[in-house]
Amino acid sequence: MLGRSAAMLRVPPHSIISYAASPCKRRSSAMSQSNPLCPLTARRCGGCPLLGVPYEEQLHGKQQTARRLLGVFAEPAPILGQEDPWHYRNKAIATFATGPRGRLTCGIYAEGTHRVLPYTDCLLQDEIINKTVTAALEAARLCRWPAYDEDRGAGLVRHLLVRRGRVSGQVLVVLVTGQERLPGSHNFVRALRERAPWVTSVVQNYNPRHTSAVLGNDVRTLYGPGKISDTLCGLEFTLSPRSFYQVNPVQTEKLYRTAIDFAGLTGKELVIDAYCGIGTIGLCAARGAGRVIGVERSPDAVRNAAANAAANGITNARFFCADATAWMSAAAKAGSQKLHPDVIFLDPPREGSTPACIAAVAALEPRRVVYVSCDPGTLARDLHLFARRGYRVQAIQPVDLFPHTDHLENAVLITKGGADPKKGSG
Fold first, then answer.
1. What is the pTM of this model?
2. Distance of CA 223 to the CA centre of its chain
3. DSSP 245-271
4. Contact indicator for 342, 293 with CB cutoff of 8 Å
């Protein structure tokens, strides 16, 4: 999940994993349709399908999912839930649309459609973010901006991205437009700041492409530094509009601390952080390692990672802009210059790793691999591939990073040697 540029975010938004045998999944559909907590549940929002399920039952269902899909390798530890599973998201993406009587509105797509459900008050989003979305919509209305129509290629405003630093309190507003020119931008900033004085940066992102990707490549700062900072696991990270950063920082700290504990660092190890993104896991691990190498194919993310290392005074971490699989394959074939990492962190996107990447990891012969996964199905597939190469799962820790959804994160410790997992289907 780490290491993807925010430019890769896709707008048919709520991509929910389906756990066919999950008790939560069986109950959530009917319950959420009439849930009084959120008026959008009856209109098929799809963003939090487990909203009608008591949180303890959600955790039980996710624990059962981890056991069903991953228990063939090792018994998953008790899931780490969230003490307060509300308003945890530090980022929101809203889509602009034309509402009744031609009035500009914004909201989220109905599940499985491109129909926008107008809404600015989400139970999962940070409450300041909700207020900021409302303020930005009002400011855009004052500017009389029309919503962008993808079919006709006409109109102006496409999406609104808002992110907030949990510790810093800084707020970044990104206005995504379908046209390069943004008339009245100064008026928008002034009106937004009058309604939301906590906003510290406003950015225009020009995205003319006919695609579901939210962000384009053209970024123009309208107010403030054009970025914000936040603190995670005691380190400060700079976040630009296109930076990938986990949306639930409270649970992310639990996930990362588990991953670093699994690494068993003593201060001497060479660590490779594949899919490193802006360097979050690698820099958190650097304090306990001898040397950290981060690999990431997004140039923006690599620049951010290097800047984050410098800002935190971390001198034992280097970052390379490259495809992680190709880089590790080359490193394994470097003869006398071959790297001998002690630990490799893998945190791939939802589709998981690839056989080629797993082969490259195995060729480097690390003592430990720590796999951070956001999809237990693809994780199970990849763990079977590791088993065929002589690696064995030692520990599995599920973490609920997305309460009220079907998503489930896991940190897994994999070591070289040992028996194959007991027979079974992942």
1. 0.86
2. 26
3. --S-HHHHHHHHHHHHHHHT--S--EE
4. no
Q: How far apart are alpha carbons 286 and 31 in whole angstroms?
A: 45
Average pLDDT for 22-26:
43
Q: How many CB atoms lie within 10 A of CB 84?
A: 9
Helices (H), 170-229: 185-195
Place of tokens 């893998």: 346
The greatest distance separating any two alpha carbons of the chain, rounded to the nearest whole angstrom, comes to 71
Q: 302, exposed or middle or buried, with CB in 10 Å at 0-12, 13-18, 19+? A: buried
Rounded to whole angstroms, how far apart are CA atoms 246 and 242? 13
What is the per-residue pLDDT across 272-291, written as a single tens digit (0 to 9) for each?
A: 999 999 999 999 999 999 99
Report how far residue 164's alpha carbon sits from residue 141's, in angstroms, rounded to the nearest whole number. Answer: 23
Tokens of 289: 């390692």
Is residue 423 pLDDT above 60, yes or no?
no
- SS in 3 state form for 321-369? ECCHHHHHHHHHCCHHHCCCCCEEEECCCCCCCCHHHHHHHHHHCCCEE
- How far apart are the C-alpha atoms of 424 and 106, rounded to whole Å? 47
pLDDT averaged over every residue in the chain: 88
What is the rounded CA–CA span in Å between residue 322 and residue 396? 29
User: What tokens appear for 57 in the block?
Assistant: 């039952």
Dist CA 89 CA 265 (whole Å) = 30
Rounded Cα gap, residues 87 and 24, in angstroms: 21
| Residue 374 among the catalytic residues | yes
Cα angle 104, 109, 114; round to 5: 90
pLDDT interval class at 204 (50, 70, 90): very high
pLDDT in tens, 302-337: 999 999 999 999 999 999 999 999 999 999 887 657
Cα 10 from chain centre: 12
Cα separation, 371 vs 258, whole angstroms? 11
The two three-digit tokens of residue 391, written as one number: 């690696």
Single out the catalytic residue among 45, 106, 357, 374.
Answer: 374
Domains in the chain with CATH codes: 67-82+248-416 (3.40.50.150), 91-226 (2.40.50.1070)
Q: Let me know how long the chain is.
A: 426
Element (H, E) at 239: strand 235-239
